[in-house]
């Protein structure tokens, strides 16, 4: 693979945030004919549409916000302000037409035509302004997201906007923010799954912090209601150590059942049957992995972050891919390993049934080479595309829960210590490196991701550049 093009946007970063993962749309009927389009959101309330064939800009749309920060309000890495959720794209009313759904800084949901960038409907209030929503997802004409960190003084809710009624429904977990990078996962029946961050786990008081919840829209009332939940047996310990559940986990079918895999900064996974997430006691997983990393139970620079991936290969094997930060746990082993891991890696698991118990489990298959810091992988044609974000992740020093001094220089120091992102194409069965971008990417990204479509790999970086790699034409 080689660099096909790069495009420098005029998006201004806020704190450590800049561009979100490109969304690739094939055969869009544009005014100049059918095109494959990359839609890229920037934190400064910008949306860009790039012609994939040429790397040229088709259009740019800037949201004119109705929100002005009150005097004296300060921002930071956790609450930077701006457009913070990756948009989602759905079909339009005619073949070749598509609609972008994006949440601006002021909390309004915008609908834009992919072909032209023009609004196809008036914007609607989706959530309070100046919050921190995560990736938007679309199911049955409803746009979902979750929020965290209490940014702007707003509560941490699951949000659902019904495009037909133009009404927002919310669910309050009672405790803990929900900051899976790709937003909530959605099951085949419309149940929305999300981990909840640091908070009290006390179901008797309707408090579901440090847990995994499934909520669903009531078709009669339009309200979001709790359907099921899973609380780790060591929830209190996870809260005390600030190693909470904050990952977007994959939902998939296997052997006639629907499954959810979730993880946390503790650096282990839980395999859950969505028909009964934690059994009768709501705390018994189908399978609980050993610690993959985070021997020191560090709350800031180790653990599973962002989003996991899952796929079924050409042979029918179900795989789960787990990106993690920090050194591999010394007791975690896989049949295939690719050297020492200091900064992070991707761990691959096979879903297999234990002959003795009849229960499914996730068995380690391989661990990739070292990556700084491994972020959400994407799979195409049995090839795993992973990436090292290159960002500096140390918030406080020494790294102990609620202790230590702020890292030197604060956010500016983290920015100066960040390096550059590296893309990797890995063999799906072995984790062998098939290709790497090396030093071709000159900047890094924070809490973003990569996209893979039609033989091309895309990444956006802190300096506002979108890179496209692929096979030479």
Summarize the structure.
With 473 residues, the protein is mostly beta strands.
Protein architecture, described:
- 3% of the residues lie in helices and 41% in strands.
- Among the domains are: 127-288, YVTN repeat-like/Quinoprotein amine dehydrogenase (Methylamine Dehydrogenase, Chain H), CATH 2.130.10.10; 298-440, no CATH class.
- A hairpin with a 4-residue loop joins strand 12 (158-162) and strand 13 (167-171).
- It contains 2 helices and 38 strands.
- The protein is mostly beta strands and 473 residues long.
Features:
Methylamine Dehydrogenase, Chain H; four-stranded antiparallel beta sheet; six-stranded mixed beta sheet; 41% strand; single chain; mainly beta; 3% helix; globular; 473 residues; 38 strands
Oligomer: single chain
Low-confidence stretches: none
Quote the CATH topology of the domain at 127-288. Methylamine Dehydrogenase, Chain H
As a whole number of angstroms, the C-alpha radius of gyration is 21 Å
Count of DSSP helices? 2
What percent strand?
35-45%
- Can you identify the CATH superfamily of the domain at 127-288? YVTN repeat-like/Quinoprotein amine dehydrogenase
**What about the largest sheet?**
6 strands, mixed
Structural class: mainly beta
- Count of DSSP strands: 38
Helix content: under 10%
Mean pLDDT metric: 96
Report the principal-axis shape: globular
Output the CATH class name of the domain at 127-288. Mainly Beta
Itemize the secondary structure elements and their pairings:
Elements: E1 2-8, E2 23-30, E3 33-42, E4 46-51, E5 56-62, E6 88-91, E7 98-103, E8 108-113, E9 119-125, E10 137-139, E11 142-146, E12 158-162, E13 167-171, E14 185-186, E15 192-195, E16 201-202, E17 207-208, E18 212-217, E19 224-230, H1 235-241, E20 251-254, E21 257-263, E22 269-273, E23 287-288, E24 303-304, E25 309-312, E26 318-325, E27 336-337, E28 344-353, E29 360-367, E30 374-380, E31 383-388, E32 396-397, E33 405-406, H2 410-417, E34 422-427, E35 433-436, E36 450-453, E37 456-460, E38 465-470
Parallel strand pairs: 27-29
Antiparallel strand pairs: 1-38, 2-3, 3-4, 4-5, 6-7, 7-8, 8-9, 10-11, 11-12, 12-13, 14-15, 15-18, 16-17, 18-19, 20-21, 21-22, 22-23, 24-26, 25-26, 26-28, 28-29, 30-31, 31-34, 32-33, 34-35, 36-37, 37-38
